[in-house]
Amino acid sequence: MKIKQLSVFLENEPGTLLKPCRILADSGINILTLALADTKEFGILRIIVKDWQTAKKILEQNGCVVKETDVVAIEVEDRPGGLLNILQALEPKKINLEYMYAFAYKKGGKAVLVLRFDKPDEAIQILQTKGFNVVGDLEFFTE
Amino acid sequence: MIQLATNLGEGFHPASAPDFIPLQHLRNLQFRRLKAIVQRAYEKVPLYRARMQSKGLTPDDIRSLDDIVHLPFTEKNDLRDTYPFGMFASPMNEIVRVHASSGTTGKPIVVGYTKEDIQVWVNVMVRSFAACGLHEGDVIQNAYGYGLFTGGLGAHYGAEALGATVIPISGGNTYRQIMIMKDFGVTAICCTPSYFLHLLDQAAEMGVDIKKLPLRAGIFGAEPWTDEMRKRMERESPLKAYDIYGLSEIIGPGVAMECKCQCGPHIFEDYFYPEIVDIQTGKPCPDGVEGELVLTTLSKLAMPMIRYRTHDITALIPEPCECGRTIRRIKRISRRSDDMFIIRGVNVYPSQIETALLTVEGTLPHYQIILKREKDLDQMEVQVEVTPEIFSDTVGSMEYLRQKIVKVIENTIGLRVDVKLVQPKTLQRSEGKLRRVIDMRNLK
Is the ipTM, as predicted for this complex, more than 0.90? Predict the structure, then answer.
C-alpha cells in the first residue's frame, strides 16, 4: 500500500530545479505529483513517478543525489474537515506526520493526499481500520 | 660492500637495500654528497654563489653535515625570479627533461633533469613502490596526470623499472578508470587521495564493488591529507593507503614514502637531506618538533636545491621504524604553512576543516572554503558536497546535518562559520585536486 517517492537534493540557486525536470522530461518520465521543500540554504524536490527505479537511475547517472522513501497516499473527502478526519484518526497513536502534499487530480470527487509518516505501516493500519481508502500503486498507475 | 643494518627477512625487495644502510655510513655519504653539491651550486649557479658570498661563505666552510645550517635558504620565488632556466647547473645539452608546476599564479616553476638525475628519480620511485610491498607482477594504474606535472611520468618510470605492468591512464575520466581497474585486475593505484575518494563514490554509483577487486595498495600524494581520509579509504576499499611525498623542485614524487608500517613516510635521505626549521625564525627545530620541512638535494646535477623551503609542515620522527629502515621518517604532511589563512584573527588550516567534517557520519572530504568580506567583517563559508549517504527527504534532518557540521567546525577552530550544502561534483577540481580555499576578500 505504500508508494515510493523520490527526493532530489537541490541547491538554493536559480535554475537548480531545471536540471532534474529536464532529465525526467528527456527520458519521457511523467511526474504524477510533486512537492518542493525549501529553506534559505537548500531545497528538496519530492516526486511521485510511475517507474521510480528507472527515474532514480537516470537522475543519479546525471549527478543528482536521490533518495527513495515510502509514503502513503490517502483519499480524502473534498469538503471541509476532510483532512481533519485523517489527522484525528492518527493523533492518539503518536505517529509523526513529517510532511504532506496533494495529488494534482481528483479521484471520483475525492482528493488524494500524499503523507510522509515516521511509521508508515502503522499509519496505514490505523487509517484502514478507520475506513479510509489508502491508495496503492495499481490504482494510480493504471489510470 | 656495505653491511646492512638489520636482517631483512622475507618480502624484502633488493631495490630497498639503500633504505637500510647503517647510520654512520649514511651520514658519511650525506656529508660527501653535500660537499660536492654545494661546490657545484657555487660554481655553476650565480644565485647560489651571490647568496653565499654575501654571507662570507665558500664551499670550504662545509666541514660537517651540521654546517648545512649556515647556508642560505632557497625559496620558491627564487625559481620564479630566475624563470625559466636560471637555476640550472648543467648546460642545456645535458638536460634531458624539464617539468613545470601548474603555475596558478603567474609564471610556472621550471625544473630540469640530466640523465643521471632521471636515474636517481627512477631509483627512488622503485624504492617507493618496493617499500609498500609492490613488485614485478603487480598491475599499477597510474592516475597521476601525465605532462608537465611530475606525478605521471615520475610514477610511470618507477613502476616500469620495478617490473610492474603500468597502466598510463593519467587523470580524469572516472568512468573509464573504474572500468579498467575492474577489467585489468589492477593491484595498485597512484593518484591524489581526494581523487581516490571520488573514484569510490563513482564506483558505488556504477554498481562496481571495489571491495571485491584485487587492489592492495594505493600510493597517494600530491596534496595534504589526513588519517581520517586513510581510514575511510581503507574501510571502503580493499587497499592499504600509503603516503608518498614529493615536490617538483626537489625531484617530483619519491622524496619520501611510507613503508608497510604506515607510520609516516621515510625520506630517501641518501639523496634528499631533511631539516625541520621554525616557520618564523628559520632556526632548526629539535627532532620531533613540528616546523617547516627544508630539503637539500644531495645529488641533483641539473638543478641543485640547497635548503629549499617546502612550506610543508611536519616533524622528523626520532624513533626508529619497526621496519628497520635507517632512513628517517617525517610525520604525514597534512598542512602547508602557505595554506593557512587568518579569519577574524584565528589561524585556520584547511586540514582542520577536513578533520572536523570527517567526524560527521557519511560526509566526504569534498569541501571548499570561501572567504568573503562583508561590511568589513570576514565571513567564512564552507561548501560541502551532499552524498547519497547523508541526504534525507526531510528538511529537518538535512538542517540537523548542516547544524552538526557547523558545530564540529566550531569545536575545532573556535569560530562559527556558514555551512552550505551543494550538489555533488559541483566544486572545482583540477588534476583530481579540489581547490580548498577561495579567498575573495581582496585585502589589497
Answer: no
